[in-house]
Specification:
The chain is an alpha+beta fold and 444 residues long. The chain has 2 domains: 2-201, Spore Coat Polysaccharide Biosynthesis Protein SpsA, Chain A, CATH 3.90.550.40; 230-432, 2-Layer Sandwich (Beta Polymerase, domain 2), CATH 3.30.460. It has helices at 12-25, 40-54, 71-82, 132-141, 176-186, 209-226, 232-248, 257-266, 290-299, 385-393, 411-418, 426-432; strands spanning 2-5, 31-34, 59-63, 67-68, 87-91, 117-120, 127-131, 162-165, 171-174, 191-198, 200-201, 254-255, 276-281, 302-307, 314-319, 324-332, 336-342, 356-362, 369-374, 377-382, 423-424. The protein starts with a strand and ends in a 12-residue tail after the last helix.
């Protein structure tokens, strides 16, 4: 049974969510709407009491009048209750969007969002499922009285605002949903959240002139991005500067990834790309030359330089004309060549952690290099180039960042969508590259 309690009217999007559920599973769920009482906790108690007395179903799911969901969210909670979870629901933010409406077990109330079922302290009623058995036990074991008997608001006080003391002894006014979880706790029933079920919460906002200005600026910025985000003339200068530094240190390097792809496909830099891609073998640049590399890049116009991991795997450098250099230190053994790809910059003040995959290639692509012309300069590239690009991006490599709407596409996102042959997890990399690195001490 689905119960929607409201004191203001159900949002159209919620009605649409319920209709989508009925289209998906037919009349599997009875839906009841409860309104006409500004005292929402009493209204919830009336709904739960009616559910208990009428014996319509084994389970009940509360859905607030502003919670937007998909059919699979309801089915997941139903399946969870069928598996024995007597009090479980989905998660959603408060209407301000600043925090979750439910509260976890740690001191700050955090809940791990990992697609698993997590025990929590308090579950918000906006998307809460519970069993008939739980209500029966509450009535029997907590000796709940039947209030307003034979009146329209007859109910057991399942949901009430109530003062409680926290675990640290601090007095706190509990909302009706959190207090319901406390009742469950008193009879030995734990509260859970299914973190697969992340539903939406429709909020309200008072709009002002500043919102109009911000929106127009957003539209302007979006339109400008669709015209291209890479100045190709500046990219040409930045690439020449980077390769000049590496050649000056006697280090072979080559163009790769998006820069190589656009050179083959377009004969030029790709204005929808966000950086230029240069690679070198890590063992070709000794550690003691790293300070020299950074210094020389700075002298050539790269004013912001960040080595984005503790280990030497990548340098991101911003040229003076806002061109980003992605310089990766490539590792190898006799069979494989590989480097790492992050979804965002790890270790920075913004992102402490980052998801990471690896791009792993058969070493045959690097036994010899071939040259390719880009704006009159001959750059090295893995050989054979088009076979390499197919291994790198898959059979659809010619479509990578080919249109204005692709400006926000990244290698990491492309990998997740297309799963080209080169993409490996860290565990897969470890298994593939068990042989010693080229240039590593033999131990003899």
């Amino acid at each position: 049974m689905l119960a929607v309690c409201s004191h203001r009217g159900t949002q159209a999007e919620v009605a649409q969510s319920i209709e989508l559920l009925h289209q998906a599973v037919g009349n599997m769920f009875l839906t009841r709407f409860y309104a006409g009482d500004a005292w929402l906790d009493r209204l919830r108690s009336v709904a739960a009491t009616e559910f208990l007395k009428q014996n319509w179903a084994k389970y009940m799911i509360f859905i607030d009048d502003d919670i937007i969901f998909m059919p699979e969210h309801v089915m997941a909670i139903y399946d969870d209750m069928e598996k024995g979870y007597d009090l479980i629901g989905g998660l959603y933010p408060t209407r301000s969007g600043t925090q979750l409406a439910s509260y976890g077990l740690n001191d700050m109330g955090g809940i791990p969002i990992d697609g698993q079922i997590q025990e929590i302290k308090w579950l918000a009623t906006g998307f809460m499922g519970f069993s008939r058995k739980l209500l029966e036990r509450m009535v029997d074991e907590l000796k709940l009285p039947l209030l307003h008997k034979n009146q329209w608001c007859e109910c057991y006080p399942f949901f009430v605002f109530c003062q409680h003391e926290t675990d640290r002894g601090n007095p706190m006014l509990f909302s009706e949903d959190w207090e319901f979880c406390e009742k469950a706790k008193r009879i030995g029933v734990k509260t859970y959240a299914d973190t697969r079920c992340m539903v939406g919460h429709k909020g309200e906002k008072v709009f002002s002139l500043s919102d109009v200005v911000s929106h127009n600026r957003y539209l302007e910025a979006k339109e400008n991005r669709l015209k291209g985000i890479l100045n190709t003339d500046n990219a040409d200068k930045a690439l020449k500067a980077a390769t000049k530094v590496l050649h000056g240190l006697g280090v072979p390097c080559w163009i790769d990834s998006g820069t190589l792809l656009s050179t083959v496909r377009d004969g030029d830099f790709n204005k929808y790309d966000h950086d230029i891609d240069v690679r070198l073998f890590r063992d070709d640049l000794p550690d003691e030359l790293m300070p020299v590399l950074v210094s020389d890049l700075y002298k050539e116009g790269y004013k912001t330089i960040q080595q984005n991991t503790g280990d030497r795997k990548q340098i991101l450098a911003l040229w003076e004309n806002d061109v980003m250099l992605d310089l990766k230190f490539v590792e190898r053994n006799e069979d494989w060549v590989w480097y790492h790809v992050w979804d965002k910059v790890p270790g920075s003040s913004i992102f402490e952690k980052s998801d990471v995959v690896t791009h792993v290639f058969p070493s045959r692509f690097y036994k010899e290099f071939e040259t390719i012309d880009l704006r009159g300069i001959q750059y090295l590239a893995p050989k054979p180039i088009e076979e390499y690009l197919t291994y790198h991006y898959g059979d659809e490599w010619r479509t990578f960042k080919a249109k204005p709407e692709d400006v926000d596409m990244t290698d990491f996102l492309w990998d997740a969508q297309k799963m080209p042959p080169c993409v490996k997890t860290l565990d897969q990399l470890k298994e593939l590259t068990a042989r010693p690195l080229v240039g590593a001490p033999s131990g003899e």
